[in-house]
Design a protein that fits this description.
Mean pLDDT: 96
Structural class: alpha/beta
Function: Catalyzes the removal of elemental sulfur and selenium atoms from L-cysteine, L-cystine, L-selenocysteine, and L-selenocystine to produce L-alanine.
Helix content: 25-40%
Protein name: Cysteine desulfurase
Family: Belongs to the class-V pyridoxal-phosphate-dependent aminotransferase family. Csd subfamily.
Low-confidence stretches: none
EC number: 2.8.1.7
Largest sheet: 7 strands, mixed
Radius of gyration: 22 Å
CATH topology of the largest domain: Aspartate Aminotransferase, domain 2
Catalytic activity: (sulfur carrier)-H + L-cysteine = (sulfur carrier)-SH + L-alanine
Bound molecules: pyridoxal-5'-phosphate
Strand order of the largest sheet: 4-10-9-8-7-5-6
Distance between the termini: 43 Å
């Protein structure tokens, strides 16, 4: 049985107050909070076996290397990648996408086409625009409807022999839409295109299976799944990671260096130049252990309950409009109150101890689509409660009374 009161005890930060009120943390789509079990792993690393990895013969270095590589295997297992060396440690989703976008410079030529969805995070738009500028490729957009669902029939018409790459998020951070990525991947493959799925917003809510999806690249940030900031993964099919050139040069990524010529290390080290976030990688593994112990099906079912309850309660407020009403969505609610700037609502909610995000959520094209400056976004995690939804609803009502 899922006991949210017990779960909340794992998160020390949830006990604190903000502006004299109990913290109601509803900004989980920006970053999740960290359970004591993961904090303990971080403290243990720096207290007991902090050392550089892969190089030292001494005990601490061996221990750190073992734990870091064990975590890679945990990540591999969780995402069901075929090989551990298909999991590249990165600093997060943004870094992961840039590795791929840069790597494709030599495979893309003028006139080739690159497709992105209309609901991407800036980190899954800008690197591809830069790629198109470098190569002369054309960026095309898969549009969406008012509900925030991709128009799959238009996607069909955009795909052609010219399509070389397709990029889409698994779940939109601004709208919560769960995209039909299996269909997107299969259709792209049918015309010979390569697919990168940005899984940053999906990883907290569901388990993506790399082999079942047959995806070419998939990206995750640990800080959105109860792990620390500054670490994440790039999954890539062995075939593609072998073909792509390294992103950064330096230590750890080489086989042999002379001033005449350097040969690169094999996977995954080819993409892991320099001293990595060792503690972060180990804590990433611990965060997956923590969430798997609760179980992703349990998490998804509970979050769905929260989403339905919050949607119903917020919808009762006069003048409130929700953006993103896809049939398949996760526990993210983007909304506005008629005639009120989202920032003003966010500021009043903060005074009440409620943390929400306001603005364009790094997805400005979505805001342009709805012709709005931004939204208030409440995003729920498995450690949130219905009582917290009630506090949010009361806060929004109070803000509305003050501002309208
Ligand atoms: C958070 C997020 C990103 C960016 O992740 P970083 O950890 O900031 O690199 C990209 N895409 C989506 C959908 C996100 O939610």
């Amino acid at each position: 049985m899922f006991d949210v009161t017990k779960i909340r005890e794992d998160f020390p930060i949830l006990k604190r107050e903000v502006n004299g009120k109990p913290l109601v943390y509803l900004d989980n789509a920006a970053t999740s909070q960290t359970p004591q079990q993961v904090i303990d792993v971080i403290v243990d690393y720096y207290s007991n076996y902090n050392a550089n990895i892969h190089r030292g013969v001494h005990a601490l270095s061996q221990e750190a290397t073992d734990k870091y590589e064990q975590a890679r295997h945990k990540i591999q297992k969780h995402f069901n990648a075929k090989h551990a060396h298909e999991i590249i440690y990165t600093s997060g989703t943004t870094h992961s996408i840039n590795i791929v976008a840069n790597g494709f410079s030599s495979f893309i030529k003028k006139g080739d086409e690159v497709l992105v969805s209309a609901m991407e995070h800036h980190s899954n738009i800008v690197p591809w625009q830069m790629l198109c500028e470098r190569t002369g490729a054309v960026l095309k957009v898969i549009p969406m409807n008012q509900e925030g669902e991709l128009l799959m029939d238009v996607y069909d018409t955009l795909l052609s022999q010219k399509t070389k790459l397709v990029f889409c998020n698994h779940i939109s951070n601004a709208l919560g839409t769960i995209n039909p990525i299996k269909e997107i991947i299969d259709k792209a493959h049918a015309v010979g295109a390569v697919v990168l799925i940005d899984g940053a917003q999906a990883a907290p809510h569901l388990v993506a299976d790399m082999q079942a999806l047959d995806v070419d690249f998939y990206t995750v940030s640990a800080h959105k799944i109860c792990g620390p900031t500054g670490v994440g993964m790039l999954y890539g099919k062995e075939e593609w990671l072998t073909k792509l050139p390294p992103y950064q040069g330096g230590g750890e990524m080489i086989a042999e260096v002379t001033f005449e010529k350097t040969t690169y290390a094999g996977l995954p080290h080819k993409f892991e130049a320099g001293t990595p976030n060792i503690c972060g990688g180990i804590a990433f593994g611990a965060a997956l252990d923590y969430m798997n112990a609760i179980g992703f099906e349990t998490i998804a079912a509970y979050e769905h309950e929260l989403l339905e309850y919050a949607t119903d309660e917020l919808s009762k407020i006069d003048g409130l409009k929700i953006y993103g009403t896809a049939k398949q969505k996760t526990s993210v609610i983007s909304f506005n109150i008629k005639g009120v700037h989202p920032y003003d609502i966010g500021t009043i909610l903060d005074k009440l101890g409620i943390a929400v995000r306001t603005g364009h959520h790094c997805a400005q094209p979505i805001m342009d689509f709805y012709k709005i400056p931004g939204t208030v976004r409440a995003s729920f995690s498995f450690y949130n409660t219905k009582e917290e939804v009630d506090v949010l609803v009361a806060g929004v009502k109070r803000a509305t009374a003050m501002l309208v």
